[in-house]
Each structure stands twice: as C-alpha cells, then as structure tokens.
Amino acid sequence: MKHSLLFLAICCTGIAPALADSPITSTPIYTAYTDIPLVAKAAKENAVLEDEMLAFLANAQMPIDQKIALCNALGWGMKGKAKKFTDYLKKQRGWTSADAKTMSGDEMLCLSYLMALDDYFNVELSLALASKALAKNKKSYTFNMIFALIKAQKQFDSNWCKVFLTVAAVERNKTLKQDLRNKAVDVVFDYINLYQDSCKGAKAAKNAVIPMRE
C-alpha cells in the first residue's frame, strides 16, 4: 500500500517514474553474469528453483558474486525461495534447524537476499541476517553491496537521500575487495544514482552521482 501511495505521489509531482520501483526490484545484477549457465537458466521466464541451483548456492567453492547473481536472476516474482534454500541446507547437512550459528557467511548472505527478494515490503529479518553475514566478510564488496541494497530497501519509504548515500558508500569505500563485476556495479548505480537529487545542502559534492565503470 505504501508503494502504491508513493507511486501516485510521484506521478502527481512529476518525479521520474523509475523511482516508483525499489532497490531490491530494480537492480538486475544477473545481467552481468549471463555467461554462467545456471544464472542464464534462472533468468528465463517460468524458471524453477531446482536442486542444481540450490547446490550451487550451497557450494563453498563457488564465488559469492555468482551466487548472488543466481539469487538475483530468480527474481522477486518467484516466492518461497528462502524456505527452499533453508530446507535444502537442513536436508543436506542433517540440521534440525538452520540459524546463523550453523551457516557460513556466504550461505547467510544468499539466504538474506532470497528473503528480501521473497518479501521486499518486509526486510527487517533479512537485513538482520545480512548484517550477521557481513560481519563474517567485512572486506567483500559483494557482501557490503547486498547489505546496502537491503538496508536501502528499508529506507525506501522514508528517506530517498539515505537510499542513495547507503549504497554509494559501498562504491566510495576503496578498501573493499572488488569481487563484483564492473557491469553489475554499473547496473546498480544506473538505478541508485536516480536518488542523488534527493540529497540537498552543503554536502552536494560528497553526494555526487557514482560514475559508470565501463
């Protein structure tokens, strides 16, 4: 309902319609990874979250950016992804329950992102899990970016400037390990830069848009 009201407000004020979308639903990271067969498969219409994909997400040898691309490719229209991943981990590892103590950082990040994609109107739990995941890999650009996108999703209904600043802070942190493809970064900021105009005041230079990497 909030998003519907926001869309009406945007239409009435003449702000760019693209802003009626959201950080989780409008950043198709997977488009930078369609050379990965499972990502391309997941991006197809009527794709199914099958065991091969779940195994990919649970494989500690697979790069985290490719796992995130797979999650992203599955999209926000398909529901129940987080539960399927949790059930898969429990079955494969004989867990009676799956909590932060039993999961790796990669698994927590993928699960938090799947949770956000499943229900982008309610991201409190996914944000809390993403925070725990980030604590396990603070120097990863991918970890920081997914945490930032989920946090920005929470900020979306209240402060568009924070949406921009939260995600832009990741790109401006040059101490991070760059483990997300440049094209994927460009996809994110092609959307997030739209919110820069919401930031006013003396910090205008700091709030400048993020340039494309390509």
Short description:
With 214 residues, the chain is mainly α. The protein is built from ten helices and no strands.
Task: State the helix count.
Answer: 10
| Total separate domains | 1
**Estimated helix fraction:** 40-55%
Q: Whole-Å distance between the termini?
A: 37 Å
Secondary-structure content class:
mainly alpha
Number of strands: 0
Largest sheet: none
Quick one: overall form? globular
Poorly predicted tracts of residues = 1-20
Average pLDDT taken over every residue = 88
Rg over C-alpha atoms, rounded to the nearest angstrom: 17 Å
Strand proportion: under 5%
Write the layout of secondary structure elements.
Blueprint: H1 2-13, H2 37-42, H3 51-58, H4 64-74, H5 81-93, H6 105-118, H7 124-136, H8 141-155, H9 160-172, H10 182-192
From the structure above, extract its key features:
globular, mainly alpha, 0% strand, disordered N terminus, 10 helices, 54% helix, 214 residues
Describe this structure in words.
With 214 residues, this protein is mainly α. The protein has one domain (29-198). The chain has ten helices and no strands. The chain has helices at residues 2-13, 37-42, 51-58, 64-74, 81-93, 105-118, 124-136, 141-155, 160-172, 182-192. Helix 4 packs parallel to helix 6, helix 6 runs parallel beside helix 8 and helix 8 packs antiparallel against helix 9 (160-172). The longest helix has 15 residues, at 141-155. The N and C termini lie far apart (37 Å).
